[in-house]
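Researcher: Here's a chain I'd like modeled. Treat it as a single chain, no partners, no ligands.
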Amino acid sequence: MENKIKKVAILTNGGDAPGLNAVIRAIVKTARTNGVECYGFIEGYKGLLNNNYVKLDLQTNASGLLIKGGTIIGTSNNTNVFNYKVVNEDGTVEYKDLSDVCVQNIKDDGFDCLFTLGGDGTQKSSRDFSLKGVKCIGVPKTIDNDVAHTDQTFGFDTAVSVAAEALDRIHTTAESHHRVMVVEVMGRYAGWLALESAIAGGADVALIPEIPYDINSVINKINERRSRGKEFSIIVVSEGAKPKDGDITIKATLDQGAGLDNIRLGGIGDKLSNDIERLTGYTSRNTTLGYVQRGGTPSAYDRILSTKYGCKAMELALEGIFNVLVTYKDGKMSYVSLEDVVGANKVVGAASGNTKESNIRKVPMDCDLIKIARDLGMSLGD
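Model: Modeled as a single isolated chain. Structure tokens:
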């Protein structure tokens, strides 16, 4: 059967993650093998709106990408073209649905398929575009590992490895100074990164968004260790963790436009460290790992996983399977519809993330990691 796909476009949207370039490389290589031209929109959906794109050539700009961090075509995490913030000449602000401009750009450019590399917000917009007739294929990207219907997103393994190495280094300082050391990691509203980092780094306490913590439970664990002669403790806390009868700690509330997650998380590590020192008198310090977790060279595992995702995405396009998300489930590459990915979050242009309609993948209480942490004697703050 003749291949009907001749020209495709890729965009990377949301926060960067190790492995993005490896996915681009895999798509481009698989496309070349099948006689398909590849292009990349610059800075995610912003580039799609502005029709700003470049050809991806394995001889020039798409060469040597396997080990390169970040994304060669840039990204944006503050662009919702279905509810785009526009500042008028008189200074007034209004929100406009500019998605039809994007659809027309895709038609005028002659792209047969749009690959959307990103997390839940990116895939929500991808689904919304699919309703307008755009042939989309999503590839799940986030170090938070919280995209629905896939067991692991690329970038997560690298982030866990970086956090575990940081915990190894924090450990020596904690032991030398007899301190309680808190390490705040990313993860937004899911605790996968904190939980796996804590297990890999030998932490004593892991606090995740799925289990609101009791500060007294945390202190009891610290005191229990001291009673056994362990005068230091290591605590990993997810940026989205919150105390019982409390709320998440917000670093800033942004004004990036309706339909976006305008909450910037951060600060729970400092809060927790200060609370421990105030309530116990023990010296406590916090280290927030921040963007170091998602920068730099991807791990070998993420290079392989990214390559699998990219090849599978292009294969689906060649097979004529669109409006789906590539998934990694039970050790096999597969796909689900973008409708399944957004779940109950059906309204076009609606925000993704921390809403009751969102379909992000959180840590279930029957997860093996929860049981392992408890078997190891790790406190989860409950």
